[in-house]
Design a protein that fits this description.
The chain is an alpha/beta fold and 289 residues long. The chain is built from ten helices and 13 strands.
């Protein structure tokens, strides 16, 4: 008997967790000096309202959860005699997982027979979502922790995401993208193309001049790297840019056909503060990242 946890940095919502029987870990952010907890301080994420605040110049910030937060999430499951499987966003992107380690050290002293197992998606937002939603389906089917972890050994590497940065100041502030400084310096209209590597880190790999060129670049990567694309979701993530996401979907369907299983997700606010508004990303099943 075990409980599955996912997190909001994987674009998971309370509705999805209710559908699959999982539990949600909330990753907060700070906006105008006030900490905000998604789905605690609001019921529904209003993407337009949030990203309009960013468009006006506000830069949100994030911080790692404290160890006590993980204790509060995990201890009730341990008390009930359940182990935990946590499918989470890339551990290479946040210090929050050190807090989790400290929390587990404390919990292990009280519940030595209980364990937390993990599936690291080695990704973020729509890329992490694409892995986590398949893990949730396996969980709902009754698969064991061992079966899901074995699936993850090969499948995590085959779920990739490519996206572009629309406004360079957000990613520049975050400092989380390798090679990003090469695109700075006031280059008008340049949209860096970023992917998440096998190490779970964001890497700037290409660029397009203008949004259309950036969409074309992303399509080229999907064409080059896709593997068994019809058997898996193609997840298009956007930060209050649904018309552009729909344009990206039309380009994909023109290339691969109407049978393509496309799902749209809006980039959660915790990660949205790092990427900014008007970004588009495509997560898909690939031969490699």
């Amino acid at each position: 008997m075990y409980t599955l946890f996912v997190d909001t940095d994987s674009d998971m919502t309370p509705e999805l967790c209710a559908k699959y029987g999982a539990k949600l870990i909330i990753m907060p952010y700070t906006l105008n000096d006030k900490e905000v907890k998604p789905y605690v301080d609001f019921d529904k994420f209003n993407g337009k309202e949030f990203y309009d605040i960013l468009r006006k110049g506000t830069l949100p910030s994030t911080a790692a959860l404290p160890p006590q937060a993980y204790i509060d999430y995990f201890e009730p499951e341990f008390k009930a005699g359940r182990d935990i499987l946590y499918c989470h966003f890339s551990s290479a992107m946040s210090g929050t997982f050190n807090s989790m380690r400290l929390a587990l050290e404390e919990l292990k002293e009280k519940y030595p027979e209980r364990n937390v197992y993990t599936v690291d998606t080695l990704s973020i937002t729509a890329g992490s979502y694409a892995v986590a939603i398949e893990v949730m389906e396996l969980y709902k089917e009754g698969k064991s922790i061992e079966e899901i972890q074995k699936w993850a050994e090969t499948e995590v590497e085959k779920h990739t995401i490519y996206f572009y940065a629309d406004n360079l100041k957000f990613f520049a502030k975050s400092g989380r993208v390798s090679g990003f400084k090469a695109f700075m310096g006031g280059l008008i209209g340049i949209k860096p193309i970023i992917y998440v590597s096998s190490e779970g880190k964001m890497v700037s790999i290409d660029k397009g001049r203008g949004r259309q060129a950036a969409l074309n670049k992303i399509l080229d990567y999907v064409k080059k790297l896709q593997d068994d694309i019809y058997s898996h979701r193609v997840v298009i993530g956007h930060s209050d840019a649904l018309p552009l996401a729909e344009e990206m979907a039309a380009m994909l369907r023109k290339e691969f056909g109407e049978q393509l299983n496309i799902e749209f997700v809006e980039v959660n606010p915790t990660i949205g503060g790092h990427c900014g508004p008007d970004c588009i990303g495509v997560a898909f099943h690939s031969i490699h990242r």
